[in-house]
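Quick review question:
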């Protein structure tokens, strides 16, 4: 049974780390502030959630699991709220998205 718990927790931990690394690369490579915020917000929430899930599986049903659930709840509320606030601040500071700056319109 402990082998299954170890395998599941390591899969969650590794996938969370992969999402965080991909989000970091996205922050460096994406062209404007809005797409960078998208990479940071999604990657941070998903990556940290997977890592916390792996830690919860590893710790079992203990007080540590309850604390990790509270951390996840806090993260689910604060990360999207902070990303939204930054996007609104950028729009208030007259930062335009990349397509709006170049005058391009999407062809649908």
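Suggested answer, residue by residue:
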């Amino acid at each position: 049974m402990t082998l299954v718990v170890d395998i599941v927790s390591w899969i969650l931990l590794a996938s969370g780390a992969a999402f965080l690394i991909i989000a970091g690369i996205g922050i460096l490579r994406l062209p404007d502030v809005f797409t960078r915020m998208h990479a940071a917000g999604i990657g941070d929430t998903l990556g940290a959630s997977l890592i916390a899930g792996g830690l919860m599986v590893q710790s079992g049903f203990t007080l540590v699991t309850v604390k990790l659930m509270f951390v996840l709840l806090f993260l689910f509320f604060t990360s999207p709220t902070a990303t939204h606030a930054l996007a609104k601040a950028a729009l208030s500071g007259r930062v335009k998205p990349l397509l709006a700056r170049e005058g391009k319109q999407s062809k649908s």
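Why it works: The chain has a mean pLDDT of 89. Residues 16 and 47 are 4 Å apart (CA to CA).
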